[in-house]
Amino acid sequence: MHSISNNFLSVQIANKGAELQSIYNKQHNLEYLWNGDPAIWGKKSPVLFPIVGELKDHVYVYNGKKYALSRHGFAREMEFEVTEQTETSITFSIHSDEKTLSIYPFEFIFSVRYMLAENALHVTYTVENKGNETMYFSVGGHPAFKVPLVEGTTFEDYQLVFDEKETLERWPISSEGLIETSPAPFLKNESAVSLRKELFSADAIVFKNLRSTGVSIKSEKTPHGLTVVFKDFPYLGIWETKGGDFVCIEPWCGIADSVNTSGKLEEKEGINTLSASNVFKVSFTIEVL
Questions:
Q1: Ordered DSSP codes for 219-265
Q2: Domain boundaries, the chain
């Protein structure tokens, strides 16, 4: 376990998956991350790479060959190496090896950097293409924030608040974890959604084409809350599971396969391309109150 801290926050991160384990507000003695109860959902903030979401039949095709990848990819289960650390920042990295190349035929270095600035945690994902051909990949975050956040409040006391008024549709998820072909109405010129468990009865809420670049968890019953700023990310997932006292706010550069996908990696919706020897970098920020 590794820690970074400043006058406002103390953050802990595990080597496995470079996964956040704690975001603790030192001034208010308040934890913002879910506790990772393994009986409900044992993760806290998995890092999603080299895919986001589910593949149809758990496979994809590249250069005529089939490869199998589990939901959200393999990075979250790998042991990362610390490649840089200061009191307020830390960088974790993994690289391609014989095992990854057998299921994902691209040479890469993938890094996750956490950096504190006052009451904000900046998260940066960097993908380096170390091969000689174009690389195809997705990347995303999956932090689970504790809701209710403070004692004396309930899940239903909180809202999701977007930084712009939105007319939005959500993209339903099939029983196989795939994106359906027709969206469903969700918001109509609104910026706030009251949290309730029924919102997640059909899995995550998936958005495309948001106007907003930030979404907050707020309550009228407490001044404490948080905002995730995700301007670099074209997709957003919001998720909670039965029995879980949390809400995940998930910035994605990529999305699960659609139910009618061709299965070809190059044709996958939201896939990112990176030329040989080039670098891809995206960031999001978690600001806490």
A1: ETTEEEEEEEE-TT-SEEEEE--TT--EEEEEEEES-PPBTT---BG
A2: 2-270+277-288
Amino acid at 250: E
The number of angstroms, rounded, from the C-alpha of 80 to the middle of its chain's C-alpha atoms is: 17
Distance CA(132)–CA(27), nearest Å, equals 49
The span from the CA of 181 to the CA of 192, in Å, is: 26
Alpha helices (H) along the chain:
98-103
In contact, 165 and 189? CB cutoff 8 Å: yes
- CA terminus-to-terminus distance, the chain: 25
Q: 115-151 pLDDT, tens per residue?
A: 999 999 999 999 999 999 999 999 999 999 999 999 9
Tell me which fold the domain 2-270+277-288 belongs to: Beta-galactosidase; Chain A, domain 5 (2.70.98)
Structure tokens at 181: 């072909």
Single-letter amino acid, residue 103 = I
Distance, in Å, from the CA atom of 219 to the CA atom of 206, rounded to the nearest integer, reads: 23
In the block, which residue shows the tokens 């913002």? Answer: 32
Q: Half-sphere exposure (CA, 13 Å, Cβ side) for 288?
A: 26
Each residue's pLDDT tens digit, 72-108: 999 999 999 999 999 999 999 999 999 999 999 999 9
Contact (Cβ atoms closer than 8 angstroms) between residue 110 and residue 75: yes
Q: Give me the sign of the Cα torsion angle 155, 159, 162, 167.
A: positive
pTM reported for the whole predicted model:
0.97
Other C-beta atoms closer than 10 Å to the C-beta of 121 total: 22
Question: Cα(113)–Cα(143) distance, rounded to whole angstroms?
Answer: 15
CA–CA distances in Å: residue 22 to residues 37, 177, 261: 14, 28, 37
Distance CA 9, CA 3 (A): 10
